[in-house]
Amino acid sequence: MTRVDPATVPARPWFERDVHDVARDLLGAFVTRRSPLGDVTLRITEVEAYDGERDPGSHAFRGLSQRNRAMYGEAGRLYVYRHLGLHHCVNVVCAPEGRASAVLLRAGEVTDGVELARSRRLAKGRCDTDRQIARGPARLAVALDLDLDEYGADLVDPAGAIVVHLPAPDAGGAGREPAEVRTGPRVGVSGAGGDGALFPWRYWLADEPTVSDYRAVRARTR
Fold first, then answer.
1. Is residue 214 classed exposed, middle or buried when 0-12, 13-18 and 19+ CB atoms within 10 A define those classes?
2. Percentages helix, strand, coil for the chain, rounded to the nearest 5?
3. Where are the domains of the chain?
4. What CA–CA distance (Å, rounded) separates 41 from 11?
5. Best CA proximity match to 146, nearest among 32, 17, 59
6. Could you please report the per-residue DSSP string of 23-43?
7. pTM of this structure
8. Is 6-205 in CATH node 3.10.300.10?
9. Which of 24-38, 72-86, 160-174 tops mean pLDDT?
10. Beta-bridge partner residues of 199
11. What end-to-end distance do the CA atoms of the chain give, in Å?
12. Does 222 score more than 50 pLDDT?
């Protein structure tokens, strides 16, 4: 089992912050997924913020439903949904309980368990290069073997099946130099929520090859 240093696992209050602060701070963080077949760890390189009932692009814009109930629950858990009946997307719930917001994990670089992650992707379709393994939210979910069975999973247990952890400090005790973060419109969000001038709520690490390409919106509502 992949060992995760408990000191690098944020406590729940870390996730209870504003969705944009959590989104930015998740960039460069890691997700480790443990399974009987092996463990996979990826470094998060791209995310999108969704701010609940204040956000026309959010699943929670119209209030609580059976589908989005996890967004209203405890921070530091997974909100997983099935998109168009085809694939799954994985979100990290944040903000205090009762205030729905979540960060969509859009892309990542697999840093451990590459062969297992690649085999999962190849079982679902093409995967031409390793940079494509988790490049896009559906691919990321497949690489980590996450679906609706993980709805509401806790992310703050260092020994859990799914855990978010931050980069370890450098040997000298100083934190890592922050990477450049860029922002832009969210992908595939229609209506007002897709307006990049009003909602430039996609965040990514500059010059990262695993970051997904921006695609023009299709008429749909998240």
1. middle
2. 25, 25, 50
3. 6-205
4. 19
5. 32
6. HHHHTT-EEEEEETTEEEEEE
7. 0.92
8. yes
9. 24-38
10. none
11. 36
12. no
Sole residue written with tokens 């247990």: 157
Q: Can you read off the two tokens belonging to residue 87?
A: 């694939």
What is the rounded CA–CA span in Å between residue 90 and residue 66? 17
Q: Which two tokens stand for residue 100?
A: 């729905």
DSSP assignments along 49-112, one per residue: EE-GGG-TTSTTTT---TTTGGGGS-SSBEEEEEETTTEEEEEEE-SSTTS--EEEEEEEEEEE
Q: Which two tokens stand for residue 193?
A: 């929520």
Hey, what are 3's tokens? 């060992």
Are 93 and 75 in contact, with CB atoms under 8 Å apart? yes
Query: By C-alpha distance, which of 20, 18, 30, 57 is closest to 183?
Result: 20
